[in-house]
Amino acid sequence: MRLQNAALGAAGLAAFLALGEAVPRLGLVKEEYFPPTSRIASAFADELSDDAFWTALGDTLTGWALGLAIAVSAGIVIGVIVSVVPYLREATASTIEFLRPIPSVALIPLAVLLYGSELRSVLLLVVYASFWQVLIQTLYGVQDVDPVAEETARSYGLGTWARIRHVLWPTALPYVMTGVRLAAAVALILTITGELVIGAPGLGARIAVAQNSQAVPEMYALIVVTGLLGLLINVGARTVERRALAWHQSVRGEVAV
Fold it and tell me: I need a labelling partner for 121 at 20 to 30 A (CA). Which of 18, 112, 145, 228 fits?
C-alpha cells in the first residue's frame, strides 16, 4: 500500500513538472514570469553550489527550530497547568479565544519595532503562531481524560504529578503530537514569511532579493526549496508521531493496514 502511494505521488510530481515545462514553452505564459522547469532546475543546481544559500538555509532552520521548540514547550506546560488548576480553564477561556485568532503577520510591525530585522523578530512571529496549535490541542487532550480513570487514580492515592504522568499524559499525548505536527508546518510558514517581509537573514530574504533583482528562475528555485523543506518537515513530524504513539490504537491500526 505504501509503495503504491509512493508510486502515485511520484507520478503526480512527474506530471506536474512536465506541465511546468510545457506551459511556458507553448507560450501559454511568458517565460520571464514563469520559466520552464528545466531553467528552474538549473537555477536550483546553481543555488546548491553557492555557500550563501547554505548559510541562508541554516538561518531559516535555526529560526524554525528555536521557535518551534519554545512554542511546543510553552504550549504543553501552559496547557497542562490551565487544565489541571481548578477554575483556571474558565478564567482564561475568553482571553485565549481573543488572542488566538489574531494573525501572526499582524505582529510584524511590533516585531520590527522591538527587534528590527534580527532573528528575534522571526522568533516572535513563529512562537506566537505555533504556540496556539499546541496549546489548543493540549487543552482538548486533557479534557478528553476519562473521569472514571481519574477517579480510580485518586482512589488509589496517586498524587497530582502521578495522575498527570499515568492518566492525563497518555490520553493527551495523541492530541499533543497532532498539535506539534501542525505547529511544525506553521512555524516554517511564519519563518519564511518573517524573513521575506522583515528582511531577516534566511531563505525568505534571499527570495526577496531574487525577486527585486528580476532573477526569476532563482526565485522559483528558492520557492522549490521551501516546498521541499515543508515536505521533509511533514514527513519527519509524522515519523516522530508514529514512534511516540506506537502503543496507541490509531497507529497500530494504521501499521496493520
Answer: 228
